[in-house]
Specification:
The chain is an alpha/beta fold. It has 12 helices and 18 strands. It has helices spanning 56-59, 170-177, 226-231, 253-267, 269-272, 290-298, 315-328, 331-334, 344-350, 371-377, 385-397, 400-406; strands spanning 4-10, 43-48, 62-64, 84-89, 92-96, 102-105, 112-116, 147-154, 160-163, 195-200, 206-211, 238-244, 276-281, 303-306, 358-362, 365-369, 414-417, 420-423. The strands form 4 sheets. A 6-stranded mixed β-sheet has the order 10-11-9-12-13-14, with helices on both faces. A 5-stranded mixed β-sheet has the order 3-1-8-5-6, with no helix packed on it. Strands 15-16-17-18 form a 4-stranded mixed β-sheet. The radius of gyration is 32 Å and the shape is elongated. 39% of the residues are buried.
Length: 426
């Protein structure tokens, strides 16, 4: 089972604005008519119950949404890029790869999350006509789409988790109580991936059960595939600990029970505190009174049920008890909600592209424009000396003059920032 993946996402870039002119027969003065570019497509991640692994991301790790189309003549808008929807299994956690910050925990089927916004389309030259520039020969470039690298981690979401040593009958039990069809054979580690099944007790009672692959001693330290298996138990609200009570493999059921409980505790203290029902399986093969000894040892601490998954004896009582325990369990306490940073994306993307500057040269005038300049101009009163000094200081902090020098500006050249035109001097 693939339950870890790393992917890179790139939302679509916005289309560039167009530089175009009116050419109508009866419009001799013409004028700018360049349309705006289309917005780039965004990337949305959607959770679905139809997937159970992250296997798709083994073969593809880079995803890019469609770019917006450039603007056209006669003020025509460019076409918006299509959004890209990436589907993941319910139970998937999204982490930003560099910081390992959890930014989303998918718990519901059909849940959608906007992870990367497409870039905004650039404005056509029609937007830059003003009292100073009647015929602007430049347009705005589209903004870049947002980018992010993600780590995906899948933790199975189920109400009930079946735990126990290999070959105790978990796969047989889940096949009997649900429509799941796991691989069943009489050897250890038949199950290597968690199996999910829906248990319908009657028309009004049901729950989701997960068959967790068999644990072994040392699982908490990663022995076998210990960490991979134990991860999927964390979210289960109730555990059914299945014991092979027959003793036909010359194992001690009491020691087996203690061993698995210790592994759960060593991996995560919360696992040992989850509500647990003990199911003694293969009672039809118990010829040494193992069940009686087990109940004497643990009967005062645990609810114990004797069953046979092969013959279905005792199954109904086990399911009734499990459902009753689910009703009593505290969801928030045992669902182990992840610590999600809901403000991370906003802060992450604010560092990026929305406030970029753009430069152009139009009839020997150097032009500076963009959202950041627009925001600055709203704060400026040119009739006030302090405001003018703030304006110049802010342009230097934005490194506007450094960029103009790279473009070849010389002393006395004109610079246009919005409707403000001034001569450049050091």
């Amino acid at each position: 089972m693939i339950d870890f993946a790393k992917i890179s996402l790139k939302a679509g870039d916005g289309g560039n604005g167009a530089v175009a002119w009116r050419r109508e027969k009866y419009e001799p003065t013409g004028g700018p008519a360049g349309g705006d570019g289309g917005n780039g497509g965004s990337i949305i991640i959607k959770a679905t119950r139809n997937l159970s692994t992250l296997d798709e991301f083994r073969y593809k790790s880079k995803y890019k949404a469609q770019n917006g189309q450039p603007g056209g003549k006669k003020k025509k808008f460019g076409k918006k890029g299509d959004d890209l929807i990436i589907k993941v299994p319910v139970g998937t956690i999204l982490r930003e790869a560099n910081s390992n910050t959890i930014i989303k925990d998918f718990k519901l089927d059909g849940e959608e999350f906007l992870i990367a916004k497409g870039g905004k389309g650039g404005r056509g030259n029609v937007h830059f006509k003003n009292s100073i520039r009647q015929a602007p020969r430049f347009a705005e470039n589209g903004k870049k789409g947002q980018e992010i690298d993600l780590l995906l981690e899948l933790k199975v979401l189920a109400d009930v988790g079946l735990v126990g040593l290999p070959n105790v009958g978990k796969s047989t039990l889940i096949s009997v109580i649900s429509s799941a069809k796991p691989k069943i054979a009489n050897y250890h580690f038949t199950t290597i991936d968690p199996n999910l099944g829906v248990v319908n007790i009657d028309n009004e009672r049901s729950f989701i059960v997960a068959d967790i692959p068999g644990l072994i001693e040392g699982a908490n330290e990663g022995q076998g595939l210990g960490h991979d298996f134990l991860r999927h138990i964390e979210r289960c609200r109730v555990l059914i600990h299945l014991i092979d009570i027959s003793g036909i493999e010359a194992r001690d059921p009491i020691e087996d029970f203690r061993l698995i409980n210790e592994e759960l505790k060593l991996y995560n203290e919360n696992l040992a505190n989850k509500p647990m029902i003990v199911a003694l399986n293969k009672t039809d093969l118990d010829t040494n009174n193992n069940a009686e000894n087990f109940i004497k040892t643990f009967g005062d601490t645990y609810d114990i049920y004797q069953i046979s998954a092969a013959t279905t004896d005792g199954i109904k009582k086990l399911l009734d008890a499990t459902y009753d325990l689910l009703l009593k369990s505290e969801d928030k306490k045992f669902d182990l909600m992840e610590d999600v940073d809901e403000n991370f994306l906003e802060e992450y993307y604010n560092k990026e592209i929305d406030y970029d500057l753009q430069f152009a040269k139009d009839n020997e005038i150097f032009v500076v424009f963009g959202k950041r300049v627009d925001n600055l101009l709203e704060k400026i009163n040119l009739e006030d000396y302090d405001s003018r000094m703030f304006f110049e200081k802010t342009l230097r902090e934005m490194e506007v003059f450094d960029k103009l020098k790279e473009m070849g500006i010389e002393q006395g050249d004109s610079v246009a920032v919005g409707d403000i035109v001034f001569e450049y001097y050091e």
